[in-house]
Amino acid sequence: MRRTRQVEPSHLGLSDLIGEATASLAAGPGRAMLTALGTVLGLGAFVAVLGITATASGQISTRFTALAATEVTVADVGVSDGGGDPALTGLSFPPDADERVVALPGVNAAGVWWPIRPGRDLSVSTTFLPERDEAIATPVAAASPGLLKALRPTIAAGRLYDAGHEARADHVVVVGAAVARRIGLADVALQPAIFIDNVPFTVIGVIGDVERQADVLFSVLVPRQTAVSLWGGPVGGGARAAMVIDTSLGAAQVVSSQVALALRPDAPDAFKVTAPPDPQALREAVSTDLDVVFLALASVSLVIGAVGIANTTMVSVLERVGEIGLRRALGARPRHIAAQFLTESAFLGIIGGVIGTSLGVITVVAVALVQRWTPILEPLAVLPAPLAGMLIGACAGAYPAMRAARIEPVEALRR
Questions:
Q1: 0.70 surpassed by pTM
Q2: Torsion (CA) 335, 336, 340, 343 in degrees, nearest 10
Q3: Which of 10, 186, 216, 379 is 20 to 30 Å from the Cα of 2, by its Cα?
Q4: CB within 8 A of 256, min separation 6: which ones?
């Protein structure tokens, strides 16, 4: 009996598969690039969002650490005498409060202040502008010389008062830039005078800007001892004194644990110390919020890109039904047809991933250069991006590939 020779099953090598997919994409480069555009935008946005978020978070952390993380505030809550209300007692800060706190390691400057007559502004008038004789209601605060240094001011004109002015209770003031504009003060070289509730004071300086406590720019600052001699110390819940401490970087937590005892060893409970929050926790919170918002937008772009690849691959399947039928008639198996279309869609994803990743990196660097920041890019967010594009393309082309694999040769050739 004669044995019939069985037909050997067809094979599709990896090199042939890649060659076929590449040739198919090269036949329509314009359509291939438009198809990959969604993935380009999605992965580009993904990389850019992660990079810009990391860069901005690092900048936020740097600025926060340089300013807010070096500020400690101390509030005077009062000392209870004989069961009375602590808030109704007088000033708890000792006369040498600035010197005691500055003596602590890590403290750059410290000063005490309180509002004079809280609840209503004092009348401020000037004599160096004859046409302006009306009084201006302006906040007035008593402040020690150390406070002016702790605020990190920028001097617009003149100088700040010092410990000598305070010790002598001199009638000198320093005004904020907003107050200077309101009263028409342009120069302090001639030592102009102003009247606070009809009490004369010499203006020796104008503060142009401060790094903390911006309300100082709208106020008139009087030496602490001068304020005590004229209006008395702070009494009552609305006029409690407070201290601002400027510390070195990293010293705020230690200073906050020591300052109450340094001020009043006999009554540390008279003060409420507020230390700055952890800058790392703030950065993580800001980073998390930015990630959630922008990564959602990037995810939408990726979904749109995947839909675009799936749609184009499906159209390609419908356009190439005759080619699919011919391949099947010549021995191609369904898995070979599916593999070819999957490879094409995966290639589209890789192309989109590479271009999108490059655009994302360029965007991060460009934003950092414009803002004068240091760009931060996580390798785990950049390097896997092309692989993510390939996976997106493969997933998007899965259904069209299965549709192509189920096409029967006879039905395909009949069309």
A1: no
A2: 60
A3: 10
A4: 72, 273, 274, 275
